[in-house]
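User: Structure please.
Assistant: Input sequence and predicted structure:
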Amino acid sequence: MAQLRAVIFDVGGVLTTSPVTAIRDWAVAQGIDYGVLGPMLAHTESAWSRYEKSLLSEDEFVVACEEEARAHGIAGLDARTMQNIAFRGQAVRPEMIAVVRHLKGRVALGCITNNVVREDSRPRGVWDLGALFECVIESAKVGIRKPDPAIYRMACDALGVTPPEAAFLDDLGANLKGARALGMTTIKVDHTARAIDELEAALGMPLPK
């Protein structure tokens, strides 16, 4: 295994609470079957995915997502409210930010996020991503989203490392699978400190908890 020279973080669900969890909780409260809605949103050609690549405006997304929902048997989906819940429901996870700050200057640091062009899409307690990371890859700006292998290569190239020299942290298995296929060390993040323990072991250095 190559020595790790870089660590790349996802944002939602890693540095912040999860927008996916926020959408799921909202859907359950609305009586919407998340077993149908979740896979629909996650599909690589869904309205949500196209929105995250800036292929749809916000208004176009709302129309396309609601049509998509009806085609999947979900009646009355309010796509605008759903995205508001996702983007306004994120709160910073201070323990993960502490890890990033601890690693600054010790390894190269990058960030890859599937996001959209919305002023209020930043989490509460917003920080300057550019001050934390040497490279910030945003799907809405580059027109590529995880788990497309190109977005991981883009981050590694920007940091001057090969994929086997980088660790990637994400809360979604599909995104980790895409990174792992390139030889990156992958760590799944949940609501516990387990990911910090795994990163500590992978790097061979103590991390704040």
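Residues 6-18+91-203 form a domain with the Rossmann fold fold (CATH 3.40.50.1000).
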